[in-house]
Model the fold of this input.
Amino acid sequence: MNVYGKHYRTIWVKEDDPQVVQIIEQRLLPHKFVIEDLTTVDDVARAIKEMHVRGAGLIGATAGYGMYIAALHAPRDSAAAFMAALVAAGEKLKATRPTAVNLEWAVERQLEAVKAAGDDLEEKIETAFKTAQTIADEDAEFCRRIGEHGQAIIQEISQRKQGDTVNILTHCNAGWLAFVDYGTATAPIYAAFNEGIKVHVWVDETRPQNQGARLTAWELNQHGVPHTVIADNVGGHLMQHGLVDMVITGTDRTLYTGDVANKIGTYMVAVLAHRHNIPFYVAAPLSTVDLNCPTGDDIPIEERGREEVTHVKGQQLAPEGVGITNYGFDVTPNELVTAIITEKGGARAPYVYSLKAQFDQ
Ligand code: MRU
Done:
């Protein structure tokens, strides 16, 4: 995606030093565009935990590169010691954020690939590098395809409205900043916009971290897509007045049943959309599907620090010592989801069959 007219991904290996992984430090956006170097597993774990990088796909890609960095620094005395260091690094990375399944998925994919690479340690390091690059490349390519599939849905609404603007509401940031490129919820929007379809995006600010106001608004602006930031409690009013044609969000963990865990507040949006007969789409690569998690209640929901709620920009709003809960995610049950748009197309209910069919394709 373009930043001030130059193409960037959200993570890459430094051109003149392949032992350094570079990221966009997202906590500083939209006011400062800063590139950060990651050179140790601790750097990578901190970047994920403290949300220098965030979003399901990017968390996975960062974990993939984290395992490559672990391989670069692992002991070389034996293959067993080398693998033990990688397993320990994987555990450290997996402990950073619990909800996005891509994290665990990328670590396990790396461990499997490196284990299978034979006993030559240079070959194992090369494999870790190639696997990290493949995870990142696939993420970008799958998001691009999600854009193509999702664009058809926007086009259909546009035709129904005889070319009038399609108003799309999104929550949090499931844009290119949450992936390696393109994004998921935003990919169909960018694709439609590029085709000349008139779109306008309602961007939920997404308290308490404000990923919508800070990140989604910034990246839509970089691409020139018309948008308006709204407080999180405005969507219902807009829907009541016919100002929302569709909702698209991302997901951090998709169950084979079609239940989806996404940023806290997504469930409220889905209930409102259902109440007003507005289609609620979820866009995600199949890498977010967790085949081992049986029900929404089994999804680990991240709980974050109290200061995110008590304070805004360092300024305390709530009274000293007040009780706080700060859940990072909620689960939207499948009956509220119109379709899940993946790199293989749109899966519709019953998801146990349609998502499974996509895996088998
Ligand atoms: O806490 P974050 O910023 O990592 O949460 C991001 C979201 O909830 C996104 O909507 C989600 O990751 C799905 S799309 C990547």
The chain has two domains: 2-138, 158-358.
